[in-house]
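Input/output pair, single chain:
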Amino acid sequence: MVIQLHDKVEEDKLRRVVDYFRGEIYQRPPLRSSVKRTLRKRSIYEIEVLEYTGRFALVRVSSDPGTYMRKLAHDMGLLLGVGAHMRELRRTRTGPFKEDETLFTMQEVMEAVTLWRESGDERLLRRVVQPVEVSVVHMPKIMILDTAVDAVAHGANLAAPGVARLTSDVRKGSTVALLTLKGELVALGVSQYDSGEIKNMSRGVVVKVKRVYMPTGVYPQAWRRQVSKT
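Output:
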């Protein structure tokens, strides 16, 4: 992002203040925000000054989702004692997507669709339109049994008997991706236990489902047959 300072400061002072924001910070959403203005904690993983001209600073930031860059620039100005505001913002990466590797412009999307419609060539379209599973490659994952898929697709939480296998980076409170044994994304949820604990569980809810992606009816409704037997 580009930060405009309201007065000149020494570059060394600017860099010291910017470094101060590395790590965990507290933010309250700005007045023009659509969310409730409650104090929240966010992590700044990387932050550095790339260029500085005396009034304008180009700053690269890697942070948690939901970090308010406009508020970050404002707070830097307060610590510098001169005031500041965000002039420009450019997002170069979100999750596994990077602008120079996996993201495409609307012009490229239009060209891919036009090529497919006019000639039937779908090679460019397949590069532009990526499977939804690409969006969760960086997340902890739990593969679930076929018999549990439709229940989760209906919004049910994942219970221990439905777990087939999982990655070792599942942590309590972390967002996890629930996948079929074929690697299809079913839902996202919040893990209630660490991976080591889940492996030893035979009952109880292990993931509370927050968002479902797979339509119902794709997999057999084994859960209804089980209910009917009770």
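The chain has three domains: 2-90, 97-130, 133-223. The longest strand covers residues 40-52.
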